[in-house]
Every structure is written in structure tokens, then in C-alpha cells.
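#structure-requests
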Amino acid sequence: MSYGVKLGAKHMKKITLPSIGRLRHFTNETLLDIFFYNSPAYCQTIVDKAAAEINRLYALFLSRNPNFKGGISLAGHSLGNKC
């Protein structure tokens, strides 16, 4: 479950129609992340959490591959907002 959905799930559940559950779940999860990312109150938190998770996974990879001497590349897509 994404960060935005966790924050807004209580409110979204009140307006989610049960007849389109899967579509609504996808929409809620995808669109809420965009709204929260574009919000000054949550943008930096989302960026910090994403960076922490990338660093955690890289540290885990290094712990499992101690002889790794290569580099890493990270590609992403911006939502167009600067926190």
C-alpha cells in the first residue's frame, strides 16, 4: 500500500463505491500519491521515505554481495513538482 493511500484511506473509504472496488483501489492508490506528492505538507516526507528505502535496499544488496565493486544507476520519472 502506498504512502498516500495510508494517509487518506479512512476518508476515501467513505466515498468509495463497492461496485467498482478494484478500479477504485487502483485509482485511489495512484491518484492519492500524486496529490500528496504535490502537497507542500507531504512532498518532502515522501521524498525522504523513498530515499531511505533506496538506501536500505542498496545496503541489503551490499550485505548479500560483499564482493560487488560495480556502480549503480537510478532512473526515475518526476511528477514535475519541486518540493
